[in-house]
Amino acid sequence: MLLLYRCGEVSTKLLERSPDNKGGGMVRSDARANRARILATAREAFTADGNVSMNQIAQLAGVGPGTLYRNYPSREALILAIYQDEVDRLIGSAPDLIATLPPLEALRTWTTDLVGAMRKKHGLGDALSPTAHKSITEQTYGPVIGAITQLFDAGKREGTIRVDAEPADFLQLTGALWRAASEDDDRSQPMLALILDGLGVHPSGGERQS
Q1: Could you please report the per-residue DSSP string of 133-195?
Q2: Which of 131, 149, 159, 181 has its CA nearest to residue 9?
Q3: Cβ atoms of residues 101 and 157 within 8 Å
Q4: What b/e string do you get for 122-149 counting C-beta neighbours within 10 Å, with b at 16 or more?
Q5: Phi/psi at 97 (5° precision)
Q6: Contact call for residues 129 and 91 (beta carbons, < 8 A)
Q7: 3 state DSSP class of 110
Q8: What span, in angstroms and rounded, lies between the C-alpha atoms of 149 and 94?
């Protein structure tokens, strides 16, 4: 993904302009592998040390500086790509979880992954300008709400998630979860259990009332 900067705002575009995608052809497998390795390395490096340099990331990833800057022309572009990669992974996992787990367990697993991603995002946030931070938040909100909606709809069809549950409300609650997960005494899982209990339709036949 090529990250373009226009008038101080950040937007994302598909790889159609990538130097590895000339003429609209398929991106070479080695170029894809380089990008994946750079993102994985940078994710860990930024989480450990928000001041790590681009050259250090290139060394850790085993690529030359030219390869790094060709794919991610700035530090901010690299961090935004990490965010987008994490969101894409989360969104893509929802259908598989729905297909393999009961809806509430699928939601529990997905939300645990979301909390982990939010902790990483918080750790990287200091390296972003306010404009870039706002941009990535706006870009990812809709897709994340869409994934939660899929998970909720599966539970509503099965009758295990209350019909008045709103994805946007649930996403607001996850903010408390990642903050709890950041404490020495991690209480995020007990808190998530309470949230899921409130979402559930219970054996008495009634939904828990607000």
Answers
A1: HHHHHHHHHHHHHHHHHHHHHHHHHHT-B-TT--HHHHHHHHHHHHHHHTSSS--HHHHHHHH
A2: 131
A3: no
A4: ebbbebbeeebbebbeebbeeebeebbb
A5: -65, -40
A6: no
A7: helix
A8: 10
Provide the token pair at 75.
């530090």
Separation CA 17–CA 11 (nearest Å):
14
pLDDT tens string 115-166: 888 777 666 666 677 787 788 888 889 999 999 999 999 999 999 999 999 9
Picking from 132, 29, 26, 19, the residue whose alpha carbon sits closest to that of residue 72 is 19
CA distance linking residue 26 with residue 32, whole number of Å: 10
pTM of the complete model: 0.74
Angle at CA 26, nearest 5°, toward 25 and 32?
A: 140
Tokens encoding 135: 């941009």
